[in-house]
Amino acid sequence: MTSARIFMRTVLLTSMFTTIKQSLMAKISAAAKTILPSDHENTTVEIRMEIYRNGPAAFNVRLDRQYVRSVNVIETWNREAPKGTTAEQLRNAMMRIPGMRTFFANGYYDGAAEIGIVYYTVSHAGLPKDRVFVKGYPSGHMIYFGEDNIEELCNDIRSFVEGNDPTK
Predict the structure, then answer these.
(1) Which of 42, 77, 112 corresponds to the end of one domain?
(2) Which of 39, 54, 69, 104 is most buried, judging by how many CB atoms fall within 10 Å of its CB?
């Protein structure tokens, strides 16, 4: 891949993350004002509970389909994997494609996709350790929240796309 192509992909990713971050920050700020009184001290827990109970309606978002919480999906999930687990499929792909690299970016406080599971999977799946990179960020599931996180994540993605180790 040419350096111009790498640069363009990095610019597009950076632009995409910045746009997503700005949009989400505006929505969360507006939702917090409508959900909670201004003098409320424990806003984070209250907002999380409101989102858990009401889903997108907590942000005044109306969907043209039914909102299904992930808890409902997990209970009925078909865990059969005829082609192997995602970790096995990733290992097979990395063995077939010698130059393939993988970067896992995870929030330390992510309750949906916990970073410990990523480390466990990487260490037990037989992945080539010299081509797998895992980095944690001081955030929850949405690691692109906050100026410092978005800047660090974009720099790490840029580093990875350029062929460097994003964990350094």
Answers:
(1) 77
(2) 104
